[in-house]
Amino acid sequence: MRPRLVVLRPLGLGDFLTGVPAYRGLARHFPGHHRVLAVPRALHPLVAATGAFHEAVDVDALAPLPPALHAADVAVDLHGRGPASHRILLAARPKRLVAFANDVIPESVGGARWRPDEHEVRRWCRMLHAHAIAADVGDLRLFGDARVEAMPRGLTLVHPGAASEARRWPLERFVATIAALRERGHDVAVTGSASEAPRAAELARRSGLEPARDLAGRTSLPELSRLVRGARLVLSGDTGIAHLAVAHGTPTVTLFGPVSPADWGPPALPRHRVLWAGRTGDPHATVVDAGLLAIGVVDVMRELDQPLPRAEAFDAHAHRLSLERLRGQRACEPVGCDVERFAVRRIGMDDVE
């Protein structure tokens, strides 16, 4: 029987995608293991696109693991710094725990220390590095899925939703931005989850878009992934679709409010543009963050009018060959992800329209 590796990442879409470099580092380091990702069922359709796992198992955040995941040879905590997530894995009796150090969990002694102000991609690569497991912070691209039905290509996708009101740019500014984009010849469509559909529908109506260009709540996750993969660009707040665009090499303009792009921003590449007021706030607040309100339509259009080159086509075969060559390599020091490396334009209150 093959040894088993269980990786715990029971979080959302953005979290799932920022974990891709860590997943692939684990796949290279444990090529002979049967690798299982413990992740919410909604994200299972994207697991194969990482090329890192043989299986996905549905789990809820901080819930006991199902018996099928017990007694793994290696358990990896990509949920947090513990102690709750560490204890969930240890309760399943793995032979080895790979995790951040936590003073109340003796089994975690020797692991890396948690840093609160660290980019999410770098964080997990650094944690693995402390366990002599190589991971490349730039290894963010997903493999395509030819089984998904073809979706419209060349669209400019506008995503007005986010998990909290604090991270939702005002709808009237999205309306004005869409009008400016259409004047420039963009074929605009609106995206969103089922819960975001009412907001997206209002945006589409106020923007004069055809009903067929309101895609919110009408695409499965694989369909959304294919849609983003073929898009001209993605305009959104700091939310999951921005990470999906990064994973497909699609140009983005991302509006940050209460959370710094130094923690969750895209890689420092010409195709990704970030707008941020330079201050943080409460990402779970019930009112729009003041920093997000400091970003005006003129600011957004200034970035959208810049050349945003698409990434080269992702050669999955060549990438898998590179993974083979890297197997057994010593752990590499993760590359820095500080905010100064991003294409960030800081917005001051003087810039508010």
Gist?
With 353 residues, this protein is of the alpha/beta class. Helix content is 30%, strand content 12%. The chain folds into two domains: 4-140, 3-Layer(aba) Sandwich (Rossmann fold), CATH 3.40.50; 156-312 and 342-351, Glycogen Phosphorylase B (Rossmann fold, 3-Layer(aba) Sandwich), CATH 3.40.50.
Structure in words:
It is a single chain. The chain has helices at 13-18, 20-29, 44-47, 84-91, 120-129, 171-183, 197-206, 221-229, 240-248, 261-264, 290-293, 297-304, 316-326; strands at 4-8, 34-38, 55-57, 74-77, 97-98, 156-159, 188-190, 233-237, 252-255, 272-276, 344-346. Strands 7-6-8-9-10-11 form a six-stranded parallel beta sheet, sandwiched between helices. The longest helix has 13 residues, at 171-183. It has two domains: 4-140, 3-Layer(aba) Sandwich (Rossmann fold), CATH 3.40.50; 156-312 and 342-351, Rossmann fold, CATH 3.40.50. The protein starts with a strand and ends in a 7-residue tail after the last strand. 45% of the residues are buried. It has 353 residues and is α/β, with parallel strands linked by helices. It is globular. It has 13 helices and eleven strands.
